[in-house]
Amino acid sequence: MFPVTLYKKLKRGPQVILLKDASTISAYTGVAPGDRVLDAGAGSGFLTIYLASLVGKEGKVYAYDIREDFAELVRKNVEKAGFADRVELKVGDVFEKIEETELDLVNLDMACSEKALPNAFAALRAGGYCTGYHPNVEQVKTFVTVGLELGFDHIISLETIERELLVRPHGCRPATTGLTHTGYITILRKPKEAAKAEGKGQ
Amino acid sequence: MFPVTLYKKLKRGPQVILLKDASTISAYTGVAPGDRVLDAGAGSGFLTIYLASLVGKEGKVYAYDIREDFAELVRKNVEKAGFADRVELKVGDVFEKIEETELDLVNLDMACSEKALPNAFAALRAGGYCTGYHPNVEQVKTFVTVGLELGFDHIISLETIERELLVRPHGCRPATTGLTHTGYITILRKPKEAAKAEGKGQ
Amino acid sequence: MFPVTLYKKLKRGPQVILLKDASTISAYTGVAPGDRVLDAGAGSGFLTIYLASLVGKEGKVYAYDIREDFAELVRKNVEKAGFADRVELKVGDVFEKIEETELDLVNLDMACSEKALPNAFAALRAGGYCTGYHPNVEQVKTFVTVGLELGFDHIISLETIERELLVRPHGCRPATTGLTHTGYITILRKPKEAAKAEGKGQ
Amino acid sequence: MFPVTLYKKLKRGPQVILLKDASTISAYTGVAPGDRVLDAGAGSGFLTIYLASLVGKEGKVYAYDIREDFAELVRKNVEKAGFADRVELKVGDVFEKIEETELDLVNLDMACSEKALPNAFAALRAGGYCTGYHPNVEQVKTFVTVGLELGFDHIISLETIERELLVRPHGCRPATTGLTHTGYITILRKPKEAAKAEGKGQ
Predict the structure, then answer these.
(1) C115 CA to chain D: closest CA distance, Å?
(2) What would the pLDDT profile of B119-166 be if each residue is shown by its tens digit?
(3) Which segment of A188-202, B15-29, C142-156 scores lowest on mean pLDDT?
(4) Burial profile C7-30: b = 16 or more Cβ within 10 angstroms, e = fewer
(5) Average pLDDT, whole number, for chain C?
(6) In chain B, what residues touch A24 (CB-CB under 8 Å)?
(7) pLDDT tens digits along C156-189
(8) Distance of alpha carbon A32 from the chain centroid
(9) How far is D194 from chain B (nearest CA, A)?
(10) pLDDT at D122 over 90
(11) How many domains is chain A partitioned into structurally?
(12) What is the pLDDT of residues B24-68, one digit of tens each?
């Protein structure tokens, strides 16, 4: 069991992916023990750590960030979580290169992430997933459009909204203020058979 | 990686817990490989299978249902998912007895689930979680009230709303109809130190 | 056309009813020019002013508040809105007495507002509406239960959620933080035929 | 008081604007007795009738639809509502021409409604509002962009979500299925001073 209270003790640099979104990414793609996944635009490392907690000791998370200071932040947070062994940190640009192959999942969380889709497609195993996390609708559309051109299947784009229910002796009600939007999650899938991947449009 | 398309092929008897809710339960409690968890009111077995996909080969899911026909349905679905080894099925009433101890998580999904809280408390390890899934607000309130009396900490009660974003060349928009409520998820935690568990109210 | 920017210039004492909720109250009950409506628990007078803008010169809004300081605040705001002629202010307790009769609408916004339902029922014309505004679910339930016992029909209870869409050249998305709950609106109706009003339960 | 149950008895042709959206349009623009408003793309006439109920006998609603069959549908529904005197029906194309001037509000509900914005701007009084109703995000963006170029102020774009709360003796909860999206409402305003209207961008 991963000690979830640890998330609050981690250092935050760039915007983090919240549990509601991290868990949607993992649930819709079926992340399981032993998986090899890549988290690009790792930011503060929250999703990296969440994924590391799921893939277990036999799994691996490759965490890319283009900025050295962010990668250093991820490193510290990953160590605090006790996942140094199962997380491999890389300062690198996934638009240029993804070194891994036969991955189960590639998550892309950065501006213009559609530019990483060709490398993501090549790095995934057949049947593997590429997920995108985007605040704006236009980004989702571009991501899906480019993904379909490359041969990905578009499984779904969605947002998740969490509403806390305040439970008090004198009355129950939803919380009055809070987050009203974080980002859209898009789930693309590399077809199981390689043949499908060539020249497939929508 | 768990083949998520399998969920659509499973047989459905009683109401299933959707991925959006199953993933909230697991993410907020930190379910990880090797965990031993209990799913009471297993119904059609969707949450059982989801949890089984997360705890891995070294983990264990104990799935209770009071009705033999539902337990049989769970058994078939669990076999189809290939998790017969890591899921132990029990036809039994958790209001009466929970045989396991030192569990990481107990999920309760049945009418009057607060009646199972004493047994759940006893069956959990210190620091373990008990989650409740309830359609109605009154059920949440009773569950939280009884849980606090028993010494649980109330972490949060919440609902999750998923909004699909339709992405089409001619325009993007949220889907026009769909689910607007499933159930509230309540997260209770057994305190880490046994001392806290005695005589603790809100 | 009522100058809606004026709402921002009004003084705020107690919690105000926002336009999203005020407009739901008026739309579901059909408030129109010439109507005679009562706003009890007028608070800062926002709903009073909104209703005054709809009932026009021939209509009337009776604004009750039990606290003299709140009634004074309403008076100042109503004057600023230019509606002194069509709003009649009363420092009074609607649990004790409602002086008006044959009203089209009575809105109740106060703790234990179900206690005002008998007076509201008597004050309404046949076919008139009584609306309640409640933050907590339990309040809604009590209000509906008492209303049904008195012979009201329960039209609907609902909440309204407004999501701003940020429209920017670089991207569109929902606003990231904001209000996530204000209050539930319950619409009760006094039956058109007096006969129905006697001894009617759900 | 407008008999709101009448909406259910009206004939429906094209998609109607629901009360939740109609009331948002009127509340954010301050529609009041005596106003002169235009509803273009009147469709089945629901918004036309709603606006007619608000502007009263001294007000006027000009309802445009380009299709004769839709205009005929509006005519029948308007008659059923008893508003034949205050609604003027026109079969016409607002992209080509709007005959009225000094209007308080122009609502546009049709594909490519941005093409009607120049005529709407000319037809509005200073300080008047132009509202757009669009299912897709891209439409909102285009509408706002063109509106700003023409000299409109962009007040807000938003969507409204209504959640019914089911209130039953055995438990309260939100309804389980329903509408999850209708359309975005965009509120543009013609500046009060004519000077502002020339050559103003964002």
Answers:
(1) 19
(2) 999 999 999 999 999 999 999 999 999 999 999 999 999 999 999 999
(3) A188-202
(4) beebeebbebbbbbbbbbbbbbbb
(5) 93
(6) 19-20, 23, 162
(7) 999 999 999 999 999 999 999 999 999 999 999 9
(8) 14
(9) 35
(10) yes
(11) 1
(12) 999 999 999 999 999 999 888 999 999 999 999 999 999 999 999
Chain B residues with beta carbon closer than 8 angstroms to that of D137:
171-173
Residue D201 lies in a domain: no
3-class SS of residue B202: coil
Residue B201 located in a structural domain: no
Contact D172 B135 (CB under 8 A): no
Task: Tell me whether residues A163 and B161 touch, CB distance under 8 A.
Answer: yes
CB C161 within 8 A of CB C191: no
As a whole number of angstroms, the distance between CA A18 and CA D25 comes to: 34
Which pLDDT belongs to residue B14? 80
Mind listing the pLDDT tens digit for each residue in C21-61? 999 999 999 999 999 999 999 888 999 999 999 999 999 99
Q: Tokens 């693309």 appear where?
A: A188
In this structure, the number of other CB atoms found within 10 A of the CB of residue C127 comes to 15
Strand stretches in chain D, DSSP E: 36-40, 60-65, 87-91, 103-108, 124-134, 153-168, 171-174, 177-179, 184-189
Q: How many CB atoms lie within 10 A of CB D198?
A: 8
- To the nearest whole Å, the CA of A174 is away from the closest chain B CA by 8
- Domain CATH for A150: 3.40.50.150
pLDDT at C42: 83
Instruction: Tell me which chains share at least 3 CB pairs under 8 Å with chain C.
Output: A, D
Distance, CA of D180 to CA of C38 (rounded, Å): 33
Where are any strands of DSSP class E within C67-152? 87-91, 103-108, 124-134
Q: Sign (positive/negative) of CA torsion C97, C99, C102, C108?
A: negative
Distances (CA, A) of D4 to B53, C29, D12, D49: 52, 7, 16, 10
- Residues in B touching D172 (Cβ below 8 Å): 136-138
How many angstroms separate the CA atoms of B96 and B66, rounded? Answer: 11
Interface test with C, best of A173, A176, A179 (most C CBs within 10 A): A173
Judged on CB neighbours under 10 Å (0-12, 13-18, 19+), B137 is buried
The C-alpha atoms of residue B49 and residue B63 are separated, in whole angstroms, by 10
| DSSP-derived 3-state class of residue B156 | strand
CB contact under 8 A, A22 and B27: yes
Q: Mapping DSSP to helix (H, G, I), strand (E, B) and coil, where does residue B108 land?
A: strand
Identify all chain C residues contacting D61, using CB atoms and an 8 Å cutoff: none
Asked if residue C63 is part of any domain, the answer here is yes
What pLDDT shows up at residue B194?
55
* CB-nearest partner of D136 from B139, B173, B178: B173
- The mean pLDDT value for D7-28 works out to 92
Q: Do B174 and D180 touch (CB under 8 A)?
A: yes
Q: Is residue A200 part of a domain?
A: no
The rounded mean pLDDT for chain A is 93
Nearest beta carbon to residue D1 from set C24, C35, C166:
C35
Parent domain of A17:
4-194
Q: Which residues does C8 contact at the CB level (< 8 Å), separation at least 6?
A: none
When scoring A31, A55, A165 by the number of chain B Cβ atoms within 10 A, the one with the most, hence best to mutate, is A165
Tens-place pLDDT, residues C79-129? 999 999 999 999 999 999 999 999 999 999 999 999 999 999 999 999 999
Query: Is the pLDDT reported for residue A19 higher than 50?
Result: yes
Give dist(CA A87, CA A37) in Å, integer: 10
pLDDT > 70: what percent of chain B?
Answer: 96
Contact B158/A162 with Cβ under 8 angstroms? yes
> Contact at 8 Å (CB) between C97 and C62?
no
Query: CA A150, CA A157: separation in Å to the nearest integer?
Result: 17
